[in-house]
Each structure stands twice: as structure tokens, then as C-alpha cells.
Amino acid sequence: MAGNKRIMKEFADIQANSPPGCTITLPKEDDLLNWEVTMDGPSDSVYAGGRFKLAVALPKEYPFKPPNVSFKTKIYHPNVSNDERGSMCLGMLRADEWKPPNKIVEVLKLVRAVLAAPQPEDAVEPGIANEYKNERRAFDKNAKEWVSKYAK
Amino acid sequence: MAEDDERTEELGSLEAIYPEFNIDHDRFSATLELAVTPSKPLLVRFIPQVTNNGKGSSYAQAATNGNAHIERDVELSHLPPLHIESTLPDGYPSTVAPKVTLTTQHDWLPKDRLVELESQVERLWNEYGRCQILYVYVDFLQQAVERSFDLDQCADGCLVLPSTTEKLLTDFDEATKVSIFNAGTYDCGICLEPKKGTRCYRMKKCGHVFCLQCLQDFYNNAITEGDITGVRCLDPTCGKDLAMAGDGRKRKRESKRTLHPRELLAMGVEESMVRRYVEMKRKKKLEADKTTIYCPRTWCQSPARSNKYPPIPADLTLYAGDDSSSDEDHVESGANRDGSATSGKASKGPPADPADRLAVCEKCNLAFCRVCYMGWHGPFARCFPRDPTELSAEEKASYDYIRLHTSPCPTCSSPTQKTMGCNHMNCFQCNTHFCYLCGAWLDGGNPYQHFNKPGSECYQRLWELEEGDEGQGPEDGRGFAGGRRWEQMAIEAAREADAAEAAQLAQVEMVAPPAAAAQLEPIAVHMAQIRLNDEPVVEAQVRQRPNGRRRQNPFPARPPAQGQAQAVRRHERAGAGRNGTNQRGNPLAQDDGLQRFLELAQRDEEDGWDSDELDEDDVRFVIR
Asked: What domain of life is recorded for the organism (chain A) (predicted)?
């Protein structure tokens, strides 16, 4: 399979030209399947000033199967599960929507776009989604609180 | 001599410009093949049998010829080259014009057009003041090619050709496209590496290019996993434009655009894999279609033949599963489903034309009636809807016979009966070698090993029951039971468990008289008592159910499954048939309905029973 070679290429590309606000490293050098990403909260969002750790786990079938993205830093967001997994599943990350030409760069761009503009219709946390839709002020407050509590 | 020099010089300079320029120096003549690739594809209409040899042929003429005008419009990007043969006679260029002959392969360019083009050389030669004119002329032709010789400017708006040339021209077009594609280099979006065109594939519908290796890997993987909807173009943007239509139908639309098996074969996916893909696709459609009828033979149960889902052809490239039309089918059958949800099993009612009741199993070829599930009884017999899980007395006898006197093939379960010979069997359906006595798979190369291994259950029993399975088996009861023996043992065990359970429940019944019944009016109690005598087991079960609403279902045909005993009871009931053997079902159900009515009347309630709760294949409900 095209797997490893492609991952190496992607990793080299992303190092040379990383998406805004992102730093990508391999926690274990010989393990290409587990990437660690540090993402700054978009400056025009409630997550501004926060620094979030994400784990990007590539399945061994990658790129035939989508990567698994999870927040290691707790975040108050309708599209990120509010548990120790911090998992995310929307858009191209869904198994039935993933297409092999998609790249990790695009995934990270998507994640950042979702931080800037949450998608309450596609939420994994309906409670937070409701708050986001109906009581934006409360949502903003909570999100900012969590940023200063967990993401500094 | 000066003229000779001029002619040689002109031919020489043209050769420098067009490397494929072919010169005959003795005759001062040369040939050149001019590739015909118009700036926009040329529309060609192929019509059958143009009688007047293509000359002045037009669509209008052909149509009035009275021929069946099944014409086909094809857009061609590449046409066979224009063959230019020019001779520079003595006296050229100052006094004599050059001679030019133009031809095309398969005569696709109309004669009058060729003549007109040929005449242009003299016009140009005069216009340019009788000088060296070949380069100007070739350039002129090239410009004409760009405009497709203005063939689309005629009355028909397209080039009209006899249909006999269709294959030649489309093949040429295709071959040229392939060779151009093969000469290119493409960046595969999956492995992210540049690949030669020969190792890439371009999708037929959308034109996206990926390398063969990645495509094969991906589709093999998807088909192996059974992910049929994944077999589509892999480009992330592909299909998205269609998906914008509406939210509800979005995903359906998108996933519907799966690839034709022809494309998978073209990109080098193994035929067995492609076949699996086509089979799964068809099966999925059949199973999703509520109108699909299945063969009533319990060992077969294949779908009946249907025009809607033609069988898969041996040549997969001819597979007719057109995805765009199946899209509509899907929506339609969805609407049907909604309709039938309100009107019950309306779709299963007898078809308007009685002859439509005939159904033929696509696998075992059994002809049966789609209403009563009996063997086909001709179009005029009167019959009634029946649940296929219920057997008539005749079928039950047949089923029992099959159970007692056949051994199922361990691979395909086809019942096999031995009329004579040894116990090494060879399945008539799937060619599996197996042992008639115990149903074990046998090695086709050495099937007798099974009977010659000391300690094996069938040791030295190769010739047992030589005269057929109705012959004498050995005294110790090890006689023939085939693979069904375990089934029979299980039924036996379940029956015992059933009896034990019934006895236990009857005991419970004696100790604690039903509280619910006691609270009712005298007549209701009376009813309950009748039922008690009639059917203690079911009664007790109904009462024991914790859910008050559910137990009032007027058709408590199938009590909740309680292990083996229930399974067997159901099995037996299915065998009971309609021929008066079903005393257990109807009176009870009627009593129960009455009982329920009385209960409700007493509490002044409406029937809150929801038809959705009823199981689809609820036997008693269907009979009534």
C-alpha cells in the first residue's frame, strides 16, 4: 500500500509549510501513525489565547481510512466530545465522507475552521450546541473559562 | 535548374517544420499527415445506410429515405488525419500551380469538402503572387482543422455519416485519447507521487485521474470489506455539486454514484473482485426492495426472477445496473414503503392480473405462486395469501420426508438423497464432496480416507445403506440421520425442555390464580377460565408479562421468545398448517380479542395498540 511513503511525504510537507497556528511533531520518532499537534486558538474566536494539544492517529489503512482527531486539552465546544477522549467527528473525518486524496493539512485546517465557527447542527455535545445556539453569551463565558483553566 | 532548386528548397524547409513530412525527391512530391484535432469536439451524427455514398448526404435526405432512422450523435475530439499529397510540377512556382490531393481514412470528410479544399491551393498561389505556397497552404489547412472544416456550419449543424463508420471513428478517437493520456504524467492524489499515464486511470464520468496501484488497493479493500458505497470516484470534490440540491437527499445522491464494473475491470481490478462487487450491489437492491419475493423452499429461499433486477451477465462489462436510474427507483420504493405502512400489507395482495402470480425462483427454478406460495397452480386457480413460513399438510409431509431421508450438503444445504451406492456423495448443486452418514466434508482427492480411518465414526461404513437410505441401518441406532441428526437431537431436547416448562408454569398457575381476571366482571372471568382450560401455557405467559399494554395485544400469536422451547414451539406451529390442525390459534385469538375488548370497555379506554408492535411474520395475524 501507498501508506508509509505517503505519510512521510505529508509529514515533510506539513513541516515545511504548516497551517497557521499549528506545530506538528511526532511524539515517537519511529511511529509515523501518531502525530501530535499544538494548535493556537483562532484569534477572532472565544478560544483566542488558548493553546490546544491534539492527537492525530492514522489508521494503518491510511489514507483509505480517515485519521482520528482528538483534543488532548479539554475544550468547551459543541463538536468535541466532553470526555477524556476529546474526540471529533465531522465533515471529511467521517468514514463515509473521507476520500483518500484528503490530507492531514486539510484536516487541521478544518479543525481550526470549526474552532472559529462551531457547527451546532453536527454536534457531539447537544447541550453545548444548544447553549451555543440559544445563549451565546453563556457559551462564550464558559468557553473562555475553560480556555484559561485548561489551555494556558 | 533554378526552379528545381526552388522546389527542393521549399520541400526542405517544410521538412524542417514538419518532421513527418515525407519527400519523394525525384518527383518533387511529398506527403503529410495532418492530425485532426479541432479546437472543440466535432458533433457527428451516425445514421444507418446512407444510400448515396456519403456524397451530399444529409440528415434530411436520409430521414426521408424511409429508413428506420435510429441515429446516434457522438462528439469526437480526434478524427483520422488529413492525408495531403502534393506535387510540384515543372514550372512551379512561377507559372504552374502545385497539385494537391487530399484524402482521409474511412472517407470521413465529405468529397465535396475535399475538392473545395484542394481548389484553395490555386487560389492562394494566385493571391500570394505565384510564389512558394506550400507552407501557406498547410497553414491554411491547419486553421481549417481548428474550425473542424466548418462542418458544423451546415444545415444539420453536424457532420452526418453512415453508421458503418461509427465504430472506426469512435475507436480512433478513443485510441488517440488513450495515447495522449499515456504520454502524460499525473500526480496521484492518493500516493502523492507523479506517475506515467500508462500507470494511471482517468474516471469515465468525471475525468479525475489516479494511479492504478492506489485505485486497485482502495477498491479491493472496499469490496473486501463490503463497503459498496465506497466504490466511487475518490476525488474529494467529486459528486459534491449534485449534493447541493437538498439536505435530506444529500447523502443518498452522493453515495449513489458508484462505479460501473466496466471501469473497475479497466483499472485492473480482479474479475472475481468485480463480480463480488456486482453481486453485493444487486443483493443490496433486492433486499431493500420490499416487493421482492423469495423462494418458499426452505433450503433455497433465493429471490424470484425479476425484470427489475436482471441476473448478472457472464460478461461484467454488459452489466446494466445504471446508477442514475436506480436513484429514482430508490426514491420511488421509499414512497411505496410509506404508503404501505398505513395500508398494512397492501402490496402483498393478489396482483390485478392473476397470471402475474407466477414467480420462478432464480436459483432452483421452482415455479410458485407469489400469493399462496404453493407450487404453481396455473393462472385460474383461486388462492389466498399465505405466509411462506407456514407449511401445508402436503408440504409438511414433504418437509418431514426430506428431514428423515436426505442429508444436506454441508456447503449449500441442498437436501441430497441417496438411492444407492456408497456414502461418498458429490453435491449436485455445488460439487462438494461429503459423507452421507455424518455430513463431514471429504477431500475430493481422496474421499475414502474418511471411511478407512480407524476410530472415525464412519470407519468401515462406506457401503452402509448401499440399497439407499430407506434400507436397513445397523441395530445400534447409528443408522442414517445425516447432518439432520443434530437438528433432530436439538428438537428432541427442546421438546423436553418445553414440556418441563409447561409443567412448571401449570404449577405456578394452580398456586396463584390470576389476579387481573378476578377483578373483572363475571362474564370476563368466565372467559378467562375457558381460556385457562384451553391453553394454560400461553395464558400464563401472557399474564406474566410485565408490560401491561403489550399483553393486551389481541393477537398474541408469538409469545416472547424464551429459549429453545419457544423456537421449537414456533417451528411446530409453522408446521401445523391450515387444515384444521390449527385449533390452537384462532379460537384463542378470538377469545383474547373479546377479552381485551371487555377489559377496555370496563375501563372505558380506547385501543392503544399500535400496529407497529406487531411482528412482520406473525403467523396467526397473516392467516386471518
From this structure: Eukaryota
Cα three-residue angle B124-B125-B128, rounded to 5 degrees: 80
Neighbouring C-alpha atoms within 13 Å toward the C-beta of B512: 9
CATH code linked to domain A2-150: 3.10.110.10
> What are the residues facing B115 on neighbouring strands?
none
B363 in the same domain as B434: no
Is A22 marked active-site? Answer: no
Residue A59 preceded by cis peptide, ω within 30: no
Q: pLDDT tens digits, residue range A32-68? A: 899 999 999 998 889 988 999 999 999 888 888 899 9
Which residue on chain B is closest to A6 by alpha carbon? B191
ipTM over 0.90: no
Domain chopping of chain A, boundaries: 2-150
Put simply, whether B190 touches A (Cβ < 8 Å) is: yes
Task: From chain A, pick out residues whose CB is under 8 angstroms from the CB of B192.
Answer: 6, 9-10
Q: Are the Cβ atoms of B255 and A5 closer than 8 angstroms?
A: no
Domain that holds residue B307: 294-321+354-386
User: How many domains is chain B partitioned into structurally?
Assistant: 4
Best to test chain A binding among B186, B187, B190, B253 (most A CBs inside 10 Å) = B190
The DSSP line for B567-580 is: HHHHHHHHHH-SSS
Query: pTM for the whole thing?
Result: 0.56
